Amino acid sequence: MELTDAKNQFVRSLKIVIAFTAVLWIVWGADMLFNLDLPKYGIIPRTTVGLRGILLSPFIHDNRNVWHILSNTPPFMVLFFILLNAYGDIAITVLVLIHLLTGFFVWLFAPALSVHVGISGVIYGLATFLLGSGIFRRDIKSLTISIIIIVFYGGMVQGFKPVEGISWESHVSGAVVGFFLAFNFRNYNRPPRTFLSSSDDTHFFERHP
User: Fold this and answer.
1) Which of 52, 192, 195, 205 reaches 20 to 30 Å from 73, CA-CA?
2) How high is the pLDDT of residue 23?
3) Under 8 Å between Cβ of 8 and 84
4) Domain boundaries, the chain
5) Using an 8 Å Cβ cutoff, are 174 and 122 in contact?
6) Which residues of the chain have pLDDT under 70?
7) Spatial contact of 8 and 2, defined as CB atoms under 8 Å apart
8) C-alpha span between 21 and 37 (Å, rounded)
9) How far apart, in whole angstroms, are the C-alpha atoms of residue 193 and residue 190?
10) pLDDT value at position 189?
11) DSSP label at residue 89
12) How many CB atoms lie within 10 A of CB 39?
């Protein structure tokens, strides 16, 4: 990729990330300002009304304080930005699939009468997709990204522990979905592997008597 193309890709990815993040904050701000009580639109497992949460829940955060959305914003922005730059052709597809499949598994397996909101499940899906892509694709770029994820986001495994008030089910579901998608897309636009070889199969001493 030429320098100009790389710069354009960087700027385009940054704009997309900022736009997506702005939607999260606009929704949260509207909920706080107009007292919309949006968490009631989250995922309510195994209920008909709770199905709408599969689509809506990542855009909804705790309306009692700012910490929920504030803690989710940096990792989402960083991981989504990496995804857009590293796997631009499939980035939006991967994001949408993580969003919908994670929500479905939460709806299917989470405890009854619980309510799940927030984008943390998507964040875990992005992290494991990037990590898994390095494992399954094994090219320099994907392996480098995997190492970065391990170094900077390895502590996310703490989110798998059942903790009251935290949707650890979303974390686990997102991680499983992200890893599955990494395997599913492992050959998409995969760079060809190169091997050292020689057209001359003669022994060294045969070539140099």
Assistant:
1) 52
2) 98
3) no
4) 3-189
5) yes
6) 1-2, 191-209
7) no
8) 20
9) 9
10) 79
11) T
12) 19
